[in-house]
Amino acid sequence: MTAAGVKAQPLERTAPGGNDSPLQRVNAPRTFFRGFGGTVREVWQYRELLGNLVRKELKIKYKDSVLGFVWSLLLPLVQLGVYWLVIGKFLGAGAIPAYGVYIFCGLAVWTLFSEVLSTATTSVVYNAGLVKKVYFPRELFPLAATGAALVNFGFQLVILLAADVLAGISSHQWPDLAKLPLPLLGLLVLVVWASAFGMLLAAANVYLRDVQHLITVVLMLWFWVTPIIYNVSRVGRTLPRPLYQAYLMNPMAPVVFSFQKFFWPQGQGTEFEFDGNVYGRLGLLLVIGLAFFWLAQRVFAKAQGNFAQEL
C-alpha cells in the first residue's frame, strides 16, 4: 500500500508494438544452492564477450610496450638464470640433473598460477565502469584473467620444450609420451584451483581493497613452500612424516610433480624424483577443486549484488 492507501502496481513498460509487458529483473537473486547451472549457461552465451575481455587483458598489460609479449618470457627466464646461478651453482643444487629444466618445470606452472590469482583479484575493481553500466555475468572478469594467463603460459611452454630439446640432446633422455596425460591433468587441476581462488579473491577485493596487497605476500610465501627450486626428497628427510604429508597437501606440489614427470626425464630413477602416486593426488585434487570451484562461484554470486554500490 502506498502512503495514499493505493496498492502499488508492478512496474511495467510499453513494448514497441504498443503491448504492455511487465519489467523483468535482470540477474534475479537465487538461493545459495541453486543457480550454478544457470550461470554456466550464461557464461557460455557470453563466450564472445569473454574472448574480448581476454584480448583486452592482454592489450592492457602490454599497452605502449615495444617488446609486447616478449616480457612474458623475460621474467621467467631471468628468474631461471638467477636460481640456476645462485642455488644451482653457489649453493650446490647443481647436483640435480638438468637443473635448468627441473627449475623451469616449476617456474612455468607457478607463473601461471600466480598470474591468475594476482590478475583475477583486481579484475572486478579495475572494470568498475563496466560493472556499473551493463549487465553480463560478472564471473567473466576473473575467468578472463585465467584466459589471459593461459595465453602467456603458452609462450613459456615453448621455452620449456626448447629446454627439453637441449637437455635431451646432451643427455640422450627424452620425455615419454605415455606420461603426457600427467601434465595435462596437472594443468587442469591448476586452472580449476586458480579460477576458484580468483573468483573468491575478486569478490573479497571489492569489499576490502587490502586483499590485492595481501595476495602478493601470500604468493611469495606459497612459492617457497612449493618444491620448485629445491628437491622434495630433502624435505622428506628433514621433516617428520606427519609434517611432510601436510607439506604435500599443497595443491601446487602435485602439479609441479606432474610436469617434472614428463618434461624432466633426466631425473627419473634418481633420488630427486618424487616417487609418490601423482595420478592419485591429482585426481583427488581435481574432485576437491571442482567442489571448491562450485563453492567459490556461489559465494561470488551472492556477493556480486552489491558490487556496483561498493565500486
TrEMBL record:
Keyword terms: Cell inner membrane, Cell membrane, Membrane, Transmembrane, Transmembrane helix, Transport
Annotated spans, Disordered: 1-26
Superkingdom assignment: Bacteria
Bilayer topology term: Multi-pass membrane protein
Transmembrane segments: 66-87, 99-120, 140-163, 184-208, 214-232, 244-263, 278-296
Family to which this protein belongs: Belongs to the ABC-2 integral membrane protein family.
Record-given protein name: Transport permease protein
